[in-house]
Specification:
This protein is of the alpha/beta class and 412 residues long. The chain has 14 helices and 19 strands. It holds the Pfam family Methyltransf_25.
Length: 412
């Protein structure tokens, strides 16, 4: 039997749990905090493979193993690895209080509406994009993905970071800092979790289902749901297919270039992605911000004309939507195609611009496809009669980076 004990947040490990153990595995601080049986072998967790081999040897000999872990070991913890290697039926899991629960408790906030993301041994950009898109996020940190790195990436985002270190120990410390303040400090190795909060929405609302906000019941909203100028908005039929090809999801970063009303940007944000909208007109910038606020989502807005405005965007987008563009469309599409990790979607009304846009996508190594969208909407006539009203045809092209190129990090 393998007993997995969650500790490290103030609850001591009882000696009865350790009694009879032939092997005790855990981090150095966990092992130093308990009194081990004299006959027990001790393995300090570092690389997992040697520790798992030692566990297998002990279990194979009929011995009892105790694994000490932080907080709740079934929550982004070692239970997954042990269950995969030895089977869940061999595990006796005794969870402690997770570092996420403890951190929120320290600042007096509920966390049923929080999004939890792990940056331990994973790409930091996913955690950053979740923090940008969500008002309440808990980030489990790791080497190279701590408060300083998170703060540097969120420097221009209106968030407060709560850095919780040494939870449950005498050295426990919980500090509120701005992203810029977090970026300027060396936080050491005792950080358990970083909470990223939009203070105006930190309390949240009463929930029925835990986690991020409810996913929208539908998308491709009617144009009337957005403020726009002279019908200069991506029509919902076009938006529906564009969203399907963009595939926005939590952890993604999407650019909406030539945003106009920001309808695509807002819809991507409603589906959980972090979004940056690029718009060249001042009134358009304000319109995008107003539409984002009306739909309760966060959209970063850059005032500038593409492709020049794109050079100031340091992050690499997962997907890009390009609308409008005029004569400069090929250069804009080329700039976006060089940067996108996964997909670029381009909407055009002019037939003459399709070949150049397609060439820009394929030249960047993307596989290109597209359609001409033509639709007719039901429209009432006097006398309780209905006619079909044709909308303007729109070409939609999309370029998809081959999966192998994405995995190898080809997108620059």
């Amino acid at each position: 039997m393998i007993t997995v004990v969650g500790t490290g947040t103030g609850v001591p490990v009882g000696e009865d749990v350790l009694a009879g153990a032939g092997l005790v595995v855990g981090g150095r601080r966990h092992l130093d905090a308990v009194r081990l049986p004299e006959s027990a072998e001790r393995v300090v967790l570092g690389p997992l493979a040697p520790a798992l081999d030692a566990v297998e040897k002990q279990v194979g000999a009929g011995g009892h193993v105790v694994v000490l872990a932080s907080g709740d070991p079934g929550f982004f913890g070692i239970v997954r690895v042990l269950a995969e290697r030895f089977g869940p039926e061999r595990l006796d899991v005794r969870p402690g209080v997770s570092s996420v629960a403890a951190a929120f408790a320290r600042i007096g906030l509920p966390w049923d509406d929080a999004v939890v993301v792990s940056a331990h041994g994973r790409e930091l950009r996913t955690a950053v994009n979740v923090c940008r898109a969500q008002p309440k996020t808990a980030v489990l940190t790791g080497p190279g993905a701590g408060p300083a790195e998170l703060g540097a990436a969120l420097r221009d985002v209106p968030r407060v970071l709560v850095v919780a270190s040494g939870l449950g120990s005498r050295a426990e410390r919980v500090e509120r800092v701005t992203p810029a303040e977090a970026a300027a400090r060396d936080w050491g190795t005792a950080v358990n979790v970083v909470l990223c909060l939009d203070q105006a929405r930190a309390l949240g609302s009463v929930r029925t289902v835990a986690g991020p906000g409810e996913r929208p019941a539908g998308w491709a909203l009617d144009e009337a749901e957005f403020a726009h100028r002279d019908s200069m908005i991506t029509k919902f039929e076009v938006r529906a297919l564009a969203l399907a090809r963009l595939g926005p999801r939590p952890g993604d970063l999407v650019w909406d270039v030539g945003a106009g009303s920001g309808s695509v940007a807002v819809e991507c944000a409603r589906l959980g992605a972090a979004v940056t909208a690029v718009e060249k007109t001042a009134d358009g910038v304000e319109r995008v911000r107003a539409n984002a606020a009306a739909h309760g989502v966060d959209v970063g807005v850059v005032h500038g004309a593409a492709p020049d405005a794109l050079t100031d965007l340091a992050e690499t987008p997962d997907a890009v939507f390009v609308g409008g563009g005029g004569r400069g469309l090929p250069a804009i599409v080329a700039a976006c195609a060089r940067r996108a990790r996964r997909t670029v979607v381009v909407a055009m009304a002019a037939l003459d611009r399709v070949p150049a846009a397609r060439e820009a996508l394929t030249s960047a190594g993307l596989r290109c496809d597209g359609v001409l969208l033509q639709s007719s909407r039901l429209a009432p006539l006097p006398g309780d009669v209905t006619r079909l009203a044709a909308t303007n045809p729109v070409f939609l092209l999309w370029g998809v980076r081959p999966p192998a190129a994405v995995e190898e990090g080809v997108a620059q």
